[in-house]
Each structure stands twice: as structure tokens, then as C-alpha cells.
Amino acid sequence: MVASSSQLRVFKMGINTHQEPVVYMRDDCDVCLSEGFSASSRVGISSQGRSIIATLNISSDETVPKGYAGLSDIAIERLGVAQSDLVSVHHAPYIESLSLVRRKVFGHSLLPAEMARIVSDISAHKYSDVEIACFLSACAGGRLGFDEIVALTQAMVNCGQQLDWPGVDRVFDKHCVGGLPGNRTTPLVVSIVSAAGLVMPKTSSRAITSPAGTADTMEALTNVRLGLNEIRRVVRETGACLAWGGAMNLSPADDLLIRIERALDLDGEGQLVASVLSKKIAAGSTHAVIDIPVGETAKVRTPGDADRLASLFTSVGAACGLKVRCIATDGSKPVGAGIGPTEEARDVLAVLQGKRGAPEDLRSRAIMLAGHLFDLADGRGVKEGMVKAERLLQNGSAWGQFKRITEAQGGQRSLGEARFRRPVLCSESGTIVSIDNRRLARVAKLAGAPASSTAGLRLLATVGDRVTKGEPLYELLSDSPGQQDYALAFNDMGPAIFTVKREE
To answer: What backbone torsions phi and psi does residue 467 show, to the nearest 5 degrees?
Structure first.
């Protein structure tokens, strides 16, 4: 077949550009020159009825053969093409919803139909990463009004698939807004409440700004990449699941936004509410408990901030048909001892198995949150719900239920070990009076978490402990010397992560 004037053959570049398609063209390419394309242009690429919008990079050497267009991995995947296939390259269509994003940048409110157009175009991969970042930045810092948050939530639900549960009147869920290292209560809560017969199809995100999300931690233990039919099967068999939401097209726009939020280290309030609630609604949930840790170095700093966020969650949830209960919890220090996917998984297993030395703070938080879910279900009070949760942990019912869930999802995995371990020592004697959650999380991330499942750290001391100079505060875990060095260098610079009050 002879190529037309706008056609080029596919050259597989073998480059991972995440979720943004990229096309590479020679600076002497006839199509590039005739169409007037320049570096960073957005171009349309079509083949066999499929089309994408890609960002153009220009090659000044012979990396790309003459008559070919180099395509990144995601571009090849979305077009469904192979090496040397013909593709048509043309100017990208005008994306009208970008004018609405510009309106938002200049402080105008978006109507529900306008928000829906933006989210629909993002879901269809019509926005570049830069354009998504622009939208997120325009919505951050309290710039989304209540009606806009409702509209964003509903738009994110409507752009993806939704689960329903015929014959089940009430479906329960739980979420933590984050900002507290080691606070991995979700696997515990799901195991406890589903052991008692409540239906809890839990879909979780990966970490955005933390060293581990629930999906990251559970992936260290079992398969979390479940499709919709697999989730239905697991829930039918066990009454619950612990899956990654990004694998099943539930609120797909949210997964695209989260990827950019992670790169920007940005987690806007309105976007947070819409992100959390859209996933709950798409999963078919009717009742949800939201954990809001509050502390000076947590994501939510003050009780006033927590009250405002709780009001948004409950009111937006009500507007979308979801009953939400928010609980402000202690966010002054990390929870548990492990930080990072594998280390947090160790703590979860220790609590479920009732091991000696299992983190009591993690255990008690899970019992409290499960108590609130039981109260939402039967109205008998949180205290009675907590007694019920405690009993289910003590008699092994929760552990047995966790094993049933992981078996239904493909079986339980053995936990790995980090290649490099280094104790970080205390510089003075005294009593630990505070731990900087943000800086501690940053150390774990620099060590490689969550990309490296076994990276992170294990706390050896916490607030209230008396320590001696030279005593280890935590053990740093990494899988490469470079990551270990980055993390140690960060630990040694700036304010101390552990504040120690010297002995008189």
C-alpha cells in the first residue's frame, strides 16, 4: 500500500510516556513540514477507525527512520497499531472545553454541563498533561464552589462504568483522606465488617502524595487488578473485596487527574471530595465513613479545617444520594510501625493474626472505624459496634475473612524484603514529643516507596518514648543505594523529623 501525503509508517520507540501519547517526527519529515507542525504541537493520529491526540516531539537526528512516525507505548496501545502500520497524521481537532478551563482560571464558576464537558474530554484522553495540570490548579485552593464540587463528582461518576448490587439494599464503604503515614486501617475494617455480613466492595486508589495507598499495600499481599466481573464474583463469594479502582474504569477521569496530582504533589479540597465520593458512588455504595486525621503535620491541620471538609463530604454526598459520616481522628503522629506498602502490610497481618507486638494504635483505630460502620448499619451505637468489632478480631473471624478475600482475588503472596536497611540514630537523649508526618513520609518516598513495594521505613520509636543518643529511631528500607542516600540526605537537612525534649 502506498502512503498518502499525510501518512507515515509506525516506528515503535519503546518509550513509556505514562498516559500521555507522544509522537516523534523528524525535523525534515514531509508531513511535519507541510502541516506546519512544531515541537509540543498537539496532533491527531488515525488508523483503522481509531484516533488519538498526541504531543509532538521533533527529532533532529536519525532516531526515527525517514517516512516513519515514532510512537510512544501508550500511543501504540490506544491506536492498536504495530510496527510499520500506516497512520494518518493531521492537525488535532479543537477542544472546545479548554475555553471553559480558561474561564475557570480567570475565576468564573462552571455550570454542571460545562464541568461535564471538561471531565468527558479528559476521560477521552483529549487533554495533554499540561492542560490537565492547568485544570487542577484552577480548581485548587478552595476555588471550587459547592455546586461545582457536586457537578465534578457526578461528571466523574457518569464518565465511567458503575457497579450495582441487585438484592442488596445497603452497601458500605470507608475512606481516609490521608496525610498520616502508616494509617492502613482499610484492610482491617473491610475484614471486620464483612465478617459480620455487611457488603463492602472496597475499591481503593494508589498513593497520591503518600508513601503507600491501600491499593499499593494490598498489592503486596494479593492481586488487586480486578475487572468488574471479577469484583462481582469476589463480592458474591465473600461479601467484600480489596481492589484497585484504576483497573476497572470506575470514574476513569479521576485516575487521570490523580496521576497529575501526584506529579504536582497537589491535593485540592474540592477535587479531593469529588475524587473520593465519585469512587464510592461508582462502586454502588450507599453508606460511607470518612476518616479525617487532624494534626499540625497531617493533610488537615486544624479542627476548623476538618469541620469544613466534613461538611463538604456530607453535603455533597447527600446531593449525590450517598449517606456519609465523617470522623475527625488524631493526626498528630504516624500510625503503626511500618511505612511503605510491604511494611504496612506486615502491620495489617500482625493485627489480623493477633500477634504479640502488633501496633495497638492501628488496631484501635480500625475497631473504632468499624464500630461507626456497624452503627450506620444497625443504629445500636458506636460503642456496641466497637465491642462487636473487637470480638471479631479476637476470635479470628476477621482474619479468616481476610484470607477468604485474598484467596478469591488470586491467593495471598509472601512479603518481600528490602535489599538495603540502615538504622537512623537519635542525635540526643530525652523524650520524643513530636514527629513531623510530612517529612517522615517524604523520607519513605525518597527511599523508593510506593514504586518499590519493599521500600519505606519501620519506626522503632514514637511520641512519648524516652530515647538515648545513638539509639535507632527508625530503620530505612530501600532497594538501591542511590535512593537510600537521597533519603538519608533529606533526613539530615532542614528541621528535625523527631523532636526530642532533652532531659533536665
So the answer is: -125, 155
CA–CA separation, 47 and 75 (whole Å): 11
Determine the 3-state secondary structure of 24 from DSSP.
Answer: strand
Q: How many CB atoms lie within 10 A of CB 76?
A: 21
Helix axes 129-139, 97-105, angle to 10 degrees: 40
Compute the distance between CA of residue 142 and CA of residue 270 in angstroms, rounded to an integer: 7
Q: Could you read off the pLDDT of 267-312 as tens digits, one per residue?
A: 778 888 998 999 899 999 999 999 999 999 998 999 999 999 999 9
Single out the residue of 126, 124, 157 nearest to residue 251, CA to CA.
Answer: 157
CA angle 97, 98, 103 (to 5 degrees): 95
Q: 326, exposed or middle or buried, with CB in 10 Å at 0-12, 13-18, 19+?
A: buried
Active-site amino acid positions: 267
d(CA 118, CA 135): 9
| Residue 82 pLDDT | 96
| Greatest alpha-carbon span in the chain | 86
- Tell me: the pLDDT tens digits for 372-411? 999 999 999 999 999 999 999 999 999 999 999 999 999 9
